[in-house]
Amino acid sequence: MTDEQITAFRAGSSAKPAEMNTVLLGLLCAGLFVWAAWVCLRSYRAFACGTISLKQLGSIVARTMLLLLVCFWLVLS
Fold first, then answer.
1. What are the boundaries of each domain within the chain?
2. Residues of the chain with confidence (pLDDT) below 70
3. Which domain of life is it from (predicted)?
């Protein structure tokens, strides 16, 4: 960004672009963690009710963790 763009951004939001970037990345990571916890909890409930097997539960949890790692690698690198 040019100096004029940074000045305009700070005037409009009273924050530096780097600070805003950190806030947005933090919100994205928090949202991904909440989503992963929801998936794992729903999968465990299905396992507890006997709807899915232990192998399916492990598969769901592994795929969810792999998706989290790929998302973090793409977003945070």
1. 3-76
2. none
3. Bacteria
